[in-house]
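Run log, item B.
One chain of 97 residues. Sequence copied directly from the ordering sheet:
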Amino acid sequence: MGNGGVFLILQYPLLMFFSMFCVYIIFSRKLNRYYTGTTDDFVKRLVDHNESKYPGSFTSRGIPWEIYLLIADLHSEQAYQIEAHSWHFTNHSLIFY
């Protein structure tokens, strides 16, 4: 994680009052692994991951999770397309295919 920087990309800053989606990548130091997800309420979703809302899930094993990347203000179709894209991590580098 290095210096623990957080990236936030706002595509439509004037449309914040609409129900917009985001794609997020969170990181677990415990597992040294990343997790990618899509949601329309990132804060609630991060709390869900860190409170083991879904026992037995992959993210329940990696608590605590911290934000690595957040791409916000997307329409749902955009968010799901980005999430479905292949994400590969090598030495904390992100490569899009």
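Observations after the first pass:
- Residues 54 and 87 are 23 Å apart (CA to CA).
- The beta strands are 7-10, 21-28, 33-39, 65-74, 87-90, 93-96.
Flagged for discussion on Thursday.
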